[in-house]
Amino acid sequence: MIEVDDVTKRYGRTTAVHGLSFTVAPGQVTGFLGPNGAGKSTTLRMVLGLTSPTSGTVTVGGRRFRGLPRGLCEVGALLDAGDAHGGRTARAHLAALARGNGLPRRRVDEVLAQTGLTSVAGRRVGGFSLGMRQRLGIAGALLGDPPVLLFDEPLNGLDPEGIRWVRGLFRRLADEGRTVLVSSHLMREMEHTAQRLIVIGRGELIATGTLAEFAAADTTTDVSVRTPDPAALATALGGPGVEVRVEDDGSCAVTGLTARRIGDLALLHRIPLHGLTPRRASLEETFMGLTSDSVEYGSGNAR
Ligand SMILES: Nc1ncnc2c1ncn2[C@@H]1O[C@H](COP(=O)(O)OP(=O)(O)OP(=O)(O)O)[C@@H](O)[C@H]1O
Questions:
Q1: Does residue 90 sit in the same domain as residue 237?
Q2: Residue of 10, 11, 46 with the most ligand 1 atoms within 8 Å of its CB, for mutation
Q3: Protein residue whose Cα sits closest to atom 23 of ligand 1
Q4: Which domain holds residue 170?
Q5: pLDDT (tens digit, 9 = 90+) per residue, 188-216?
Q6: CATH of the domain at 268
Q7: Å from CA of 39 to ligand 1 middle
Q8: CA pair distance 267, 271, nearest whole angstrom
Q9: Do 120 and 172 belong together in one domain?
Q10: 300 lines ligand 1 (CB under 6 A)
């Protein structure tokens, strides 16, 4: 369990995280979503104990950060796939990590097997593709067999097979009762990865909920209407809160009315309809709508 309680983190005049509170429960994969610069990495670093909050508290398994980074047996993390020394082999990299953390050597072979790297364990990391580096980073996170796992943009650079594998692994880790937090700036990456979402923007919480709740909460539905007389339709439907937009393909996108009401009004005004299709916003569109105020934020802006 991770609990972030009213956390603010400032770097000089930049506020990276502001009054952020959320909890991450074990047993499911939680997506941590936000546009670039939203404060995801900063938050993950605070959970790991690599950075201390300016104010507020972060607890992992009920324990507060006490000025020392959390050990590999407590929290495993993939923060930056590029941080392994390029001149070392994958096995040597993991062996050094294991030694430094007092972990048994056998864990190295176990995590190499778990991440599909056994056959390349003797190769230098410098020659690894980004996907292999991601696997190695994940192997490092698993080394201490920790109950809490953090992955910062782990799908970056993975091919479709790699993405499928990572998704399966995260699910298995969550099914084992672990707390799994995965960051991304792309909703489409989270759609088939996470069961719950935490969405942040400009360092602040925007929304939390299950994926199903996000899908159900999209109120920005519109209705696509085909008619030979869009102008008459717009006049007939016009009113407060109703918008009729003619799309490039000649159809009309109507917001603010149900398909049934549009049909009734068209009949009343004797306007022929050739099509009437209610449309739901995709999760990606819901995310864009939620974070649209946050994306203009350029890194380094003072708030
Ligand atoms: N060490 C630092 N010193 C100064 N500013 C920082 C530092 N770390 C992060 N920031 C700033 O804090 C804000 C949040 O950055 P952070 O990297 O946490 O966002 P992010 O959501 O992880 O973004 P991205 O997806 O681009 O990695 C940005 O404006 C960033 O420039």
A1: no
A2: 11
A3: 37
A4: 2-216
A5: 888 888 999 999 988 999 889 998 887 77
A6: 3.30.70.100
A7: 6
A8: 6
A9: yes
A10: yes
Same domain, 228 and 210: no
Decide which of 175 and 49 is more confident: 175
Domain for residue 299, yes or no? no
Report whether residue 119 contacts ligand 1, using a CB cutoff of 6 Å: no
Query: How many angstroms separate the alpha carbon of residue 299 from the centre of ligand 1?
Result: 7
- Distances in Å between the Cα of 68 and the Cα atoms of 51, 52, 64, 76, 97 are 9, 10, 10, 15, 17
Q: Indicate whether 40 belongs to any domain.
A: yes
Number of domains comprising the chain:
2
**Which among 103, 8, 39 is positioned nearest to 299, based on CA atoms?**
39
Report the nearest-CA residue for atom 6 of ligand 1: 11
Q: Is residue 26 part of a domain?
A: yes
Is residue 170 included in any domain, yes or no?
yes
Q: What is the CATH number of the domain that holds 65?
A: 3.40.50.300
DSSP designation for 89: B
Tell me, using a 6 A CB cutoff, whether residue 79 lines ligand 1: no
Q: Is 260 helix (H, G, I), strand (E, B) or coil?
A: helix
Distance 203 CA to ligand 1 centre (A): 9
How far apart, in whole angstroms, are the C-alpha atoms of residue 133 and residue 82? Answer: 7
pLDDT (tens digit, 9 = 90+) per residue, 74-133? 999 998 766 777 789 999 999 999 999 899 999 999 999 999 999 999 999 998 988 899
